[in-house]
Amino acid sequence: MSNHLSGGKVNIALLQDHLRKQILYLIDKCNGPKAIVWDEALAGPVGLICKYKILLDHDVSRMYPLKFGKLPVTNVNNIIFISRPQIHLMDMIADIVHEEERSGIRKYCYLFFIPRRSQLCEKRLKTKGVYGNFNLIEDLPCDIFPFDSDVLSMEVETTFKDFHLEKDPTSLYQAAQAIFTLQELYGVIPKVTGKGDAARHVWKLLERLDLEPRTYPSTSQIDHLILLDRTVDLLTPLATQLTYEGLIDELFEIKNTTAHFPSENFDTEDEKDIMSDKKQVILNSADELFAEIRDKNFLAVGAVLSKRANMIKSELEERSGMGSVEQMKVLVAKLPHILAIKKSLGIHTPIAELIKQVTDSSEFLDSLQLEQELMLGVDTDRVQSHIEDCIAHEQPLIKVLRLICMQSATNSGLKPKVLDYYKREILHTYGFEHILTLTNLEDAGLLKVQQGSRGYTVLRKTLRLTVEDGSEVAPVDINYVHSIYAPLSVRLVQHIVRHGGWGNLTDVLSLLPGPILDVKQSSRYCSQNRRRASVGSQTSSINDSPKVVLVFFLGGCTYAEISALRFLSQQEDSNVEFVVATTKLINGNNFIKSLIDPIES
Amino acid sequence: MTVLLTADWTPFGKDDYFRKFEVYNMEWSDIDLNTLSLTSTSFGGPVAVIRDRNKFVKVQGSGKPIITIYTTSGVYISSFNWSSGQIVRLGWTSSLDLLCIMEDGHVLMYDIFSNYRHTFSMGQEAIDTKVIDAKVFYTAQSTGIAVLTAAHRIFLINSVNEPKVRRLPEIPGVHNASVCWEVMCEDRHSKVLFARGKDLYSLNEAEQNAVVLDVDLGDDVYMIKAMAVSYDFKLLAIFTDRGKLWIGKSDLSKCFRLYDVRNTLIPVQLVWCGNDAVIINWGMILEVIGLKEECIKYHYDESVFLVQEVDCVRAITLQSMDIIQKVPQVVRDIFRISGTAPGSFLLEASKQFKKKNHRSNEYLHIVKPKLFLAVQQCVEAAGHEFNTETQKMLIRAAQFGKIYLDDCSPENYVTMCRVLRCINAVRSPKIGIPITHTQLYTLTVQGLMKLLMIRHHHFLALDLAAFLKMPESSNVIRLHWACYKVKHSNRNKDQVAKEIAEKLGFNKGVSYTEIAKKAADCGKTELAIKIIEYEPLANLQVPLLLRLGEDRTALVKAIESGNTDLVYTVLSHMRENIPLGKFQMEIRGFPLAQALYLKYCRLHNKDTLKDVYTQEDDHKSQAVCYIRESLDPKNSGMREASLVAAQESYKKAKLDLHASFCEEQLKLLKYQRSLEEKFKRDFVGKSLHATVKLLLSAQEVKLADKLRTEYKVPDRRYWWLRVQVLGELGDWFELEKFSKSKKSYIGYEPFLDICLKYGNRYEAQKYLPRVREELKVKYLVKLGMMEEAAQAAFDQKDREALKYVESKCDPDLLEKVGSFLRQLPK
C-alpha cells in the first residue's frame, strides 16, 4: 500500500511497519469496539503510519479530537487516549474522564503516550484524581515518522526553542531514541559527523544509550550519520524557498505531507468535497508528476507541466488513428498511467497558477530582491528601506522579523544603531509586548550585534554560498533552490560526503557556532559478523553500491534543503543517497513563529 | 570385561537384576553412625548429621548437640552448634535449606553453609500442644512440612516459602496406640495417611472428617508399624507388627503383594527403591522386596542409612556410599550373559575391532539390520553407567556403529557425550552430587545448575552452561554469583563492585539493579551504590538511587541519561524531601536540572521563578517576568507597577535601550489614558503606530504630530501613514496639500497608488509628473495610459519596458508597440 516509502536503498516502509505493529499491538490490548481520542498534533503523523482503514479492522469505530468537554454519546465502552506527554493535554483528558464518569456508564479508559510517558503528566493525572481510572497506561515509542522514501520527521516543533532558549533537551533525547530505532532496523551506523551544541548533545546521548542492551541487524544499511544543529545555519530557513514544494509550504503550509488549497481553483469533477471550501492534496512521491517537479525551481515547473500536458494530449489523440488490436492493447496497458498523470496535472496546474499569482506580485518580488541583495552582501550594514516600508505598511510581523534576521545573519550581526532602530520600529508599530519576542530572537542568536569578524563574508567565498548563474531551469548547482543562494547546511553536507568527514574545513568551521564532531561508532551489542562482513565487502562495494548518508537536522529543515540534497545525489559523479531526518519540517514563517513569545491573553 | 561388569548384579526375579555399586569412598572419618541421626534428600543431596536423641551417648564438651553438614561423599561442608530447643526432625528443602523442626512448633531454616536464614512457626495450636513428629515432603513446586502434635492433630504447610498453615481433620478415637504416618501429594493438595493401631485414615485438608480406609493386611490382629510412599506418590508399602509387608497402589485400590517378612522387629527404615521394590533396612541387613515374588538381601558389616531417590536408593555407611538399583533395562540387555540385544552385538563388534580381530565384521553383520537400534542402545546405556571406562566403551561402540549408518542424526550421540561430561563432573567426590541420568532428566539441567549455585559451585555451573550452550542460564548463574558475592564479601566495596562488573560484563540478561537491590537488602548501601553505577538502564538506576537516598548521584545519572523525565523524577523527589532553599542550592550546580526546574516554574509557579532569578542576579530574566506580568490581563491594575519594576531590572542588567522602551511604554500608557478620557475611545494597549493612526483618522493632526516628535517616529513611516489615512478618509484635497508641504520622503508613487486604490484616477494623474523617470512606464500602465506608456518606454529606449507594455496592452495598440520594438536596436 505505501510503496512510495520503499523507493530508496534504505526501505523506509520497514520503519512504517515497525511503528504500525507497535500501535496495533497496544490497540489490540483493549478488547471490543473502541473509540480513540487523539491529541490533534499526533493524528496527522500517526495517520502516516496507520490509515483509518486499518484501525477500523482493529475495532476502532470512533475517532475524536482531544479537547475539553464531553465526548459525543456512543455505545462504545472502550476509550483510548493517544497523547503527547504534555500537561495541558492531561487536563483535557482528565476533563473527558470526569465527564464520562458523570454519565454513569462504566467505560474502560486507556492512555498511550507518544513517544513516552512523563512523570509530570502522571502526577497531573493523579492530582486530577483520574489516574486510577485507566486500565492501562503505556508508552507508544514512535519517535520518528516516515514522510517519504527519503524523509523522516519527528514532528516536534519546539526543538530549537527548547534547546537553545530554555536549555531543555527533551526532544534531543527523542532524536537519539529515533536514531536507535533506525539503527535497530537498518544496522549500526559506523560513522558520525556533526556540528553544533545539539549535535554534540545527541552524540553524547548515543554513547550513553548504547550502554543499554539492544539487538541490531548484522549489516549496516546506513553508512554515515550527519548531525546538524540548526544554529549552524540560521540563514537558510529564513530565505524564501523557490522550489515547487518549498513554495507550496511557504504559501499554503504543508502539514504531514498534506496541503490545503482554495477549492474554487480546481475542477472538482471527482472527490467533490461539498462541506469544505478547501481542496486537500497529499504531496508525496506516490504522485509521479509531483515527484518530478517537487524539487525543481518554480521557474522550471511550468515547462514540465505543459510538456506533460501535450504528451498526454498526443497520446490520447493517437487513439483515434488506431487500427490494430495490438496497438489497442498497448494503449490499454498504458491507460491507467496516463489517466493518473492527467489527474495529477489537474491538481498541479492550478496549484502552480496559485503560486504564480503570488510570485508575480511586486510585494513578493521586492522582498525577494532584498533577500538576494542581503545574501550577496550588498549594503547589508544599513537600515533597509524595504524593511522600513514593510513595517510602515504593517506587513505581518513574521515577514518583517524574517527579513531583519536575514540581515543579521548575512551581515554577521547588525550594527547596534541599526538593531536598536529596528527594535524601536517594531515596538512602536506592532506593540510593546513584542519586546519578549525580540529578546527570544536575540537569545537564540537570530538577532545579534555585530562583533568584529565578518563570518558570513568568509563563508560565502570559501563555500561558494552565492552563485549567480541564472540556471534555475537547468541547474548545475544546488544554489537553484534559492535562485542564487546555496544553502550553507547542504554545502557542509556536500563537503562531508566528498571528504568522508570535516577534512580540511576546520578553519571555516570555527566561524560557525558549536563544537564539531567526527567519530566512528561501533556498538558493544553489535555482533562481530558485521565487522567481518564489512571487511569482506569493502573492496567490492567501494564502487558499486552507493553510500547511504542519514542527514539529521536538529531544529528543523526546509523543503529546499531536502531538494538540494536530492539534487546532490542525482549528480552523475555522486555515489551517495541521502535520507533526511529532521525534528520538524520548517520554513521561515513557522521557524520564526516558534520563537515568538506566546502572550497570554 | 563383560563378566566383570555383571559381578555386582544379583538376579531379581526371572529376567531382572539388582545391582549395588560403590560410588564414593567416604571422606569423613571420626563419626559413629550408631549414635548419630542422618538426614539427606534426593538428587544426591547433602547429609546433615546430629546426635540421635534416642540413643545413649557419652556426653562430650558442652553437651549441646552439633549439626554437621557433609556432602553425600562425606566431605565436610559446615557445622553449627544447636542451641535452640528440642529438635523433632531435620529436613532439607528442595533448594537445599536445612529445616530444623522443633518440639515447640517452630521451624528454623539454615542454608547449607550453616547460615541462619529465618524462622517460621507451624501455627499457634502446634506451639501450644508440642510437636512429637514431623515430615518433610516435596511437591512439584516446593517443599512442604507436616507436623504431628501430642494431641494427634496434624498441621501442614505446602510450601516453606510461604508458610501458610493448614489444619487437617481430627482423627477419631483414643490416643494411646503407637502411630505412623506419611504425607502424599496429588496435584496441588496434600493428604496424610495416618495409621494408629490397626486403623488407617486418610486425612485430607479439603475434607471435614478423617476417612477410614479399609485394607487387608493378612491378619486379624495387628498394628501398623511403618509405611513408605514411593517418590511419585503412586505406590505404598505398609509394614505390620506381625511381619507382614503390604505393597500396593497408594490409593489402596490394588495390592500387588502381601509378603511375610517373618520378622516382627520394627525396621530401621522402610523405603522405596524407585518404583521397582521396597527396601527394609534392618540396621545392617537390607531386604529388597519386589512387587511380585522377588526378594534379595544385602548384608553390611556396619550400620547403613538409606536415602530414597527417584530411580534408586543411596546407602550411606561410614565407609562408603553405594547405589542400589534395579539394573536399567537397556544395560541389562547389553551386558547380560548371552544377551542377544543389538547393542550387545555392536559392543562386541567394537571391542573386536579394537583388537583388530576379523570377528568384528561378523558381529557387525549380525547386527546390521538393527544397527540404528544398537547405536541408540549403546548411547542410552552409557548414560546409566557411573564408571567412566564403561561409559567410554559404550560410547565408542555407538560411534563405531554410527559410521555404518547413512542417515543417522548425531544429535542423540552428541547430547549424550556432553551430558556425560557434565554429570561426571558433578559426580566427582569433591562436588559430591551422585546424580543418575534418570534423575537429571527429572531435575533438568537448569535444576542441576541451581543446586550447584546453592553449593557455591558457580564456576562449575558456568562451565556447564557454556558447555551445553545455554547462555540464558549463564546469566542466571552470574547474577546468582554476584548476589552471593554482595552478600558475603566483606572486602572493600570498590573492589567488590569492580570484581563483579569484570565478571559480569555487559550482557542482556544481567541486571545490575537486581544485584544492587540485593546489596541494599542486606544493608550494604554503599556497595549497592557502587554496583548500581554499572546499570546501563537509567530508568532502573535512578529510582534505586533515590531509594538509597543518593539524591545527588541520582540527579547526575538522570542528567547523563538525557532522559529529562528522569530528571524531573529526581527533582520532584528532592523537592518533596528537602527544604526549598537547600533544594535550590543543590540544583544550582546542574545547569540542565536548573533549566528544567525553571521551565517547570514558568508554567506552574511564577513567584518561585522570580525568586530564583533574583538569587541568580539574572536581571534580564527578571525583567521578562515583570513584562509578562504587565501583559497579563488579570493584573491590569498592576500594569504600571510591573513596568516600572521591569525598567529597573533592565537598568540593572545594563540594557538601557530596553529600559527606555519600558519608560516610553509607561509614558504612552499614561498619555493613552488621557486620550481615552478626551475622546471616549479605546486607546490603552494600542501600539504607538496605531495610536497615531487613530489620531490622524480623527483628524487630530496636531496631536499626532506631537506624538510623532515625542517618540521620534521616522519621517518615512509617518508619511506612509499620513498618505494611507488620507486615502482612507478620501480627503484628496488634504492629500494634495500634504504632497506639496515638503519634499516627499517616500517619493510620489505612493500618492498615486493610494488614489488608484480608492479608485480616483483623476487625482492619481495629478502625481504623474512627479513619478521617478524609471518608474514612469510602470505607472502609466497602472493608469491604463498605454499609448503614453509605449511612447515613454520608446523615449527611454527600454526594450524590457516596451515588452512589458506589449504584454499588457490592447490588441489595437500592439502594432504600434511592435513598430517601436523594431526601431530599437537589439
From TrEMBL, chain A:
Highest taxon listed in the record's lineage: Eukaryota
Example of a GO biological process term: vesicle-mediated transport
Transmembrane segments: none
Record InterPro entries: Sec-1-like_dom1, Sec1-like, Sec1-like_dom2, Sec1-like_sf
Pfam families: Sec1
Protein family according to the UniProt entry: Belongs to the STXBP/unc-18/SEC1 family.
Protein name: Vacuolar protein sorting-associated protein 33A
TrEMBL record, chain B:
UniProt KW Iron keyword: no
Keyword terms: Endosome, Lysosome, Membrane, Protein transport, Transport
Membrane topology classification: Peripheral membrane protein
Cellular component GO terms, alphabetical: CORVET complex; HOPS complex; late endosome membrane; lysosomal membrane
Subcellular location: Late endosome membrane; Lysosome membrane
Function: Plays a role in vesicle-mediated protein trafficking to lysosomal compartments including the endocytic membrane transport and autophagic pathways. Believed to act as a core component of the putative HOPS and CORVET endosomal tethering complexes.
UniProt similarity note: Belongs to the VPS16 family.
Protein name: Vacuolar protein sorting-associated protein 16 homolog
Species whose genome carries this gene: Nezara viridula (Southern green stink bug)
